[in-house]
Amino acid sequence: MMAETTRPPEWAEALLWWCLKSTNREDVSGDLLEEYRASIVPSRGKAAADAWYVAQVAGFLWRATWLWALMFSALFVARTAYDWRVPTTDFATRSAVSSWSGVAVWFIAAMWTAWRSRSFTAGLLIAMITSQIAAVMSVVGAAILLAVWHDAETHSAIAGSGGLAEVFTLPFMMIVPALIVGGVGSAVGSVGRKVSSALVG
Predict the structure, then answer these.
(1) I need a surface site. Which of 60, 67, 71, 146 has the fewest CB within 10 A?
(2) Residue 181 to residues 47, 127, 132, 144, 168, Cα–Cα distance (Å)
């Protein structure tokens, strides 16, 4: 009887709800909860079952964010490589191109998620999570670049473009602009979906 009323962590259920399409929420969340209660809790216990549920939710979040994160990371690593291989003292144009490209990724990711989920919160959440997954990818990519190019000329270019500290910390600070841009994209997506539904209905 206990397994039939046991629930996974509320925050994990909320994350799952937000990252699913509105048309799939009931079925997917219901099936996962049924498996959690019927087989995972009885066989593994509550703590292990909660860990299993969180892992399942992480999988859904990964599928909802990995492509956007990869796109943003690719932009960051490409910009980093360009700064290192083609040094300059005028970063205005490069910064404008890379910044607006990154903004576009966050905006579209948030807008698309909010549209398909009918949830402002979902779009905002996906933008923020995307920024941090992209941060990890970007740091790994930059580390690979550094392993390939570590001559004196490259180190001089790195110092002239902000230094290694910036390369390895800036990606994680992107959660702040991702929050802002994601909020705008989410608002556009959720309002746009409501207007579209009202017009069709």
Answers:
(1) 67
(2) 37, 8, 14, 29, 22
Does residue 96 contact residue 154 with C-beta atoms inside 8 Å? no
Listed by start position, the domains of the chain span 2-200
CA-based end-to-end distance of the chain: 43
Q: Which helix (H) or strand (E) holds 74?
A: helix 46-85
Q: Which of 23-27, 69-73, 78-82 has the lowest mean pLDDT?
A: 23-27
The pLDDT tens digits for 130-170 are: 999 999 999 999 999 999 998 999 999 999 988 999 999 99
With b meaning 16 or more CB within 10 Å and e meaning fewer, what string describes 151-184? eeebeebbeebeeeeebeebbeebbeebeebbbb
